[in-house]
Amino acid sequence: MTQIQTAAPTDTRGVREMLTASGYSKKAIDYYISKPHMGQIPDADIASEMTGSCGDTMGITIKMENGLVSDAKYQVMGCAGAISAAMAVVDLIKGKDLDYARSINDGTVFQVLEEIPVKKHHCIQLAVKTLQKALDAYQLRQSA
Prior knowledge:
This protein is of the alpha+beta class. It is built from seven helices and three strands, in the order αααβββαααα. Helix 3 packs across helix 4 and helix 4 crosses helix 7. The longest helix is centred in the C-terminal third of the chain and has 23 residues.
């Protein structure tokens, strides 16, 4: 990972300008810079990892409490699109049940991000597919 991806820079003006010029919304840029849900939950109930067609890799860990997602975190080795998409997914699923989490799709995440470059839409798909893979594995484990 690059320094920008592992730690938020103290002066983000240049990064914000570059991402704005590339077609990212303020919301997507804020997710990328602050990375509010980046990390791993050590005692997670649900976990999954995927690598996208572009080589970006994501892992998700989810903690459940009383049938609701109490916490979720992504580890992302990828671009601004991948990181912002993953952070948006967590905001969408926290406090919700697994049926709602399963209903999350690319369009739902795109609405949260407001705008990312067209050539980065596959990043949204990767974040959603990583979530779906984790939910599928959890469901299989619960039904066994």
